[in-house]
Write a structure and sequence with these properties.
Elements lengths: L2 H14 L6 H17 L4 H37 L8 H6 L63 E2 L27 E2 L4 E3 L5 H13 L5 E2 L17 E2 L1 E3 L5 H20 L8 E9 L4 E5 L10 E9 L7 E2 L2 E7 L7 E8 L5 E6 L4 E3 L2 E2 L9 E9 L1
Antiparallel strand pairs: 1-3, 2-11, 3-13, 4-6, 5-8, 6-7, 7-16, 8-14, 9-13, 9-16, 10-15, 11-12, 11-14
Helix pairs in contact: 2-3
Amino acid sequence: MTAKQILDSFSETLMQDERILSPQERELLTSLLQNSRAVSSSDSGTQSAVTAAIARSVGETVAQRAFALLGSSIVEQILARSVIPAGSEDAMLAATVHSRAPQPPNPVPPAPGPKAPQPPNPVPPAPGPKAPQPPNTVPQPLRAPQPPNALHPQHGFRPLSVPVQQGGQQSQIESGSGVGILDSPEIARAQCVVLDEFLTPQELDELLSYALRHEEQFQSSEVISPNGEPGMIAFDHRRSRVLLDLGKHEAIILERIQGVLPQVLDRLGIEEFPVTHTEAQITASNDGDFFRAHSDDSDKLIASRRVTFVYFFHREPRQFEGGELLLHDSQGRSERHVGTRTYQTVVPQQNQIVFFPCSVLHEITPVECPSRAFADSRFTLNGWLHK
């Protein structure tokens, strides 16, 4: 068997494993390759360059996922071969573990009580403890290269997959047993869909320019009060500024969203529904701004919201840190999300949009912007689709 035959056989094996490439990703790749050939059929050089770019992206993604699976298999084999024989000194030592319940590392301190509203510009408290992120374990997205003179960008669909530290209760150890069993409640991972390069470069530049020109029209962000009244400003819960008049940019973003909505809903596991109306706003978050944990459909006034979208944009080079979107996992699989100690993290990336169900508990971590200049803010064009 030649080297090429061996390589082709290995590639075929990887393609059949849905943990490496899902059917939807294979379908997306097929569509990308066909479209790129159709666009650049008259220019063999461009066609080769586009194909090579797709090949590199696919190769990197497949390699990372294959490495992770191979590593897991090796660890399982090592554990299977390293069982401690009964009666050994190590086994006798392990039998004494039942004398005290195992303690989780770095126990989480109790949450602080409610605070009085603060005036603008105080530094808010940091959010809860953040789950450690193991390096180099996040599968890279399949990003679609842009064919020359394409009118609209192609989007690489990807459900967010981030390693997190699972939080759960420990069970009591049975008397006489030397083994402690972790008994965690069922955790439902927060679902979201991330699309890269959502607007064209020109549309992105015009949107940023529009936001900067209308700085004076931005107003303090509001929340719904505990008794259901809108228009409440609570600096201890939310700090940012919003612009409600988006000009032509509202129609542009909604047209793009309409084009990808069927695929997004399918990825989120939401049945297609008639969109009765939409809300959209531009949010500017500067130094110290944040938004504590909340869901977007938790009040009667906003109960018809179904899908939240958040489009990230900012001035280059980026002049802020933080402002991460945390999507909390939930207990069980009921429609009403009850937060856990685990979450998915979305770091703001230029020209990227995130979709997730409005019922998901989420928050924005504090922004650090040393210049405090409005132009250096973390900007989003965010909104909701109503059923």
